[in-house]
């Protein structure tokens, strides 16, 4: 039986002592039999995703966990585009968009076109494939009023300003170049033409005429933000020749996984919240282990509780995470996958007291029959700081795991 | 109550086992109730200021502790200039100078002008503001015979040799270019002209005529060393928008603090030696906490004992440092500052056996109610190596502390 790696990522897991938990962190406080059993039979450590004391976003945190450096970070637009299954190539410039409602003078009436939910696929389809000044516009709907747009062609730049005025009553902003390059001037000008062209197409679209008849806001315009240019990065699965899969609910994580060349599995029962179906997720992950070398199993709810300053809730979501891992282990046994390395990590800390990501290191753990065991018996921020992995960087973890799969490239001879 | 950070730095604190202390380090041997209490309720680690096994100077050590990289190190001249309260700008070239006594043929009669103590302010004033070849000379007296000189203008280089021959009887050296650039040739030539011009002005200065009448050495010349060019660096307090203050006795530390944009507090009772007034220092630091986000409290005597190979003396200075921290904690309590993070660090090790700075890591500690506590119960080099911070770099510490103040910049989204 071939060796496999399952990497479980609890988003925003790391925390600080919480007064309501008797000055324990939620992870210290929670009852986590499975996580602790994995610690007892594995090795542990703490990890700075990028640098000690520097918070990272979920996108960059996962980009690093999936084998990239901060220099590969393409900005939010491209990651959202990947999250929607679009395949970006080097030089593409991607944006996050809203469908919005404007009046005849392009003043924003509603930034979300009445939180439009239906018909955005058709509207996006009407914009997809427009060509202006030799540049192709790719357009895809996302959740509710959201969408992603990609400009594809020569000499594009992401150094251009947003067109979203962020407020009703204001006119859509004219995009301008943020640097002196010809490319930025060209792209800003192009984006402004795209906005006008999109308005022409959308205002006359049958779905919008119908929306007006029904007394709804017409999704007659788009506004953009977060321009990001796709850098020259190779899919890690192609570079190192392995198969990987990511089981997740969240578009951002799925986007980074797509960018890295991972297959992605997302079902409607994966909610990205505490009500997510952990049986389904565990099952999907173990099923994926059969055909992949590396499977990432992402769990979002822990992060939300940190953002909400809800230590009790974070304890609860951690105990559910522990349950999910128990199901995973049971299924692995059932499926007789007898050489699976289990790794536990997080993309950043989200301390309840801070309600935001922080630079505190996250606890990591690696368990498997070939792993050097240390003396740590619990999976939490404090215990793991005593572990055999010591303090590592985010980029180290994937490298260590891929080395167990004999995929890392030997240096020297 | 807003969160504050107090960073106490014991200069040259780290050491090696000393035979006379039963093979304990001075910090292990010393009775340090307060430091140990802070360890018991905080987290600890060891720290390489720059790289493992690489000693750093007090200037670079503090530059790193205050948030800069080795690439920002401007050389000794600029740091001394900042230490004297001069505000350097990008492109300035600064030097450490001595007032000296020369004969008519520019041979050194006394390198320190008889260790002149009085009138240097007037003499420096006479040189300050000279303009030669479009370059302005700024001049300021320092302790005793010492002074700092800054050349300000276009196209200056610091790649030039010293003019100080370092020995009586020798002629003042002619500065020469250390590389092939036009700038270095220009600056060396200019410096030679400055030396001649300064001699003309000084030898006829009334204060020197009076000195000769009194049978004293005439401070009729200057010699220079340590040319350093001010790099383009932004004050960290401006870059990250916070208020910081440094309480210290030593010009070098005050210089780095000024460079970093910290307010500085220096009273005559702060001596930089074991007789320094710890009550006054503690009081100044806690007072500064009220109006600053970060306060650095520097303690010099530990380093001196290392340089003197005086383990017993180092123990004594460490116990005094422990007392200073006790006073600090009492005052913080008294002032009801209820969310102060206390961090302990050092700028380098100065092992007694070496009598010089070494590359041994230094013990660090962070204490505060939001800090993940570890299992370490003593603040010393050995105990801290078991701590929850593990082994960090000098640049990590300030980053971690600024993250508790929510000042570090999140990467990604």
From TrEMBL, chains A, B:
Pfam families to which the protein is assigned, alphabetical: Metalloenzyme, PhosphMutase
Domain of life: Bacteria
Keywords: Glycolysis, Isomerase
Catalysed reaction, written as an equation: (2R)-2-phosphoglycerate = (2R)-3-phosphoglycerate
Annotated pathway: Carbohydrate degradation
GO biological process assignments: glycolytic process
Similarity comment text for this entry: Belongs to the BPG-independent phosphoglycerate mutase family. A-PGAM subfamily.
Function noted in UniProt: Catalyzes the interconversion of 2-phosphoglycerate and 3-phosphoglycerate.
Protein name in the entry: 2,3-bisphosphoglycerate-independent phosphoglycerate mutase, archaeal form
Species in which this protein is naturally found: Fusobacterium ulcerans 12-1B
């Amino acid at each position: 039986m071939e060796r496999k790696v399952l990497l479980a990522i609890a988003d925003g897991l790391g925390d600080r002592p919480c007064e309501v938990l008797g000055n324990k962190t939620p992870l210290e406080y929670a009852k986590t039999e499975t996580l602790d059993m994995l610690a007892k039979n594995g090795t542990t450590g703490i990890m700075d995703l990028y640098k000690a004391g520097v918070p990272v976003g979920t996108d960059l945190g996962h980009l690093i966990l999936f084998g990239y450096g901060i220099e590969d970070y393409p900005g939010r637009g491209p990651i959202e585009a990947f999250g929607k299954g679009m395949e970006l190539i080097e030089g593409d410039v991607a944006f996050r968009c809203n469908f919005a409602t404007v009046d005849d003078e392009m003043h924003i009436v509603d930034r979300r076109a009445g939180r439009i939910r239906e018909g955005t696929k058709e509207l996006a389809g009407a914009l997809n494939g427009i060509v202006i000044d030799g540049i192709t516009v790719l357009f895809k709907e996302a959740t509710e009023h959201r969408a992603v747009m990609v400009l594809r062609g020569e000499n594009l730049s992401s150094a251009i300003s947003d067109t979203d005025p962020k407020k009703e009553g204001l006119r859509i902003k004219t995009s301008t170049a943020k640097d002196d390059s010809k490319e930025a001037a060209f792209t800003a000008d192009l984006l402004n033409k795209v906005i006008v062209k999109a308005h022409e197409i959308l205002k006359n679209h049958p779905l919008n005429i119908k929306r007006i008849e029904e007394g709804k806001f017409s999704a007659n315009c788009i506004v953009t933000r977060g321009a990001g240019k796709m850098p020259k990065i190779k899919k890690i699965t192609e570079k190192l020749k392995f198969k990987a899969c990511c089981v997740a609910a969240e578009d951002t994580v799925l986007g980074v996984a797509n960018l890295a060349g991972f297959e992605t599995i997302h079902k409607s029962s994966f909610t990205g919240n505490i009500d997510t179906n952990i049986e389904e997720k565990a099952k999907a992950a173990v099923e994926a282990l059969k055909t992949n070398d590396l499977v990432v199993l992402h769990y979002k709810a822990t992060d939300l509780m940190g953002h909400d300053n809800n230590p009790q809730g974070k304890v609860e979501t951690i105990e559910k995470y522990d349950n999910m891992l128990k199901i995973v282990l049971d299924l692995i046994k059932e499926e007789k996958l007898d050489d699976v390395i289990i790794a536990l990590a997080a993309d950043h800390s989200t301390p309840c007291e801070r309600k935001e990501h922080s630079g505190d290191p996250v606890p990591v753990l690696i368990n498997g029959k070939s792993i050097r065991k240390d003396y740590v018996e619990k999976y939490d921020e404090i215990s793991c700081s005593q572990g055999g992995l010591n303090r590592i960087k985010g980029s180290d973890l994937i490298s260590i795991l891929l080395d167990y799969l004999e995929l890392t490239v030997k240096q020297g001879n």
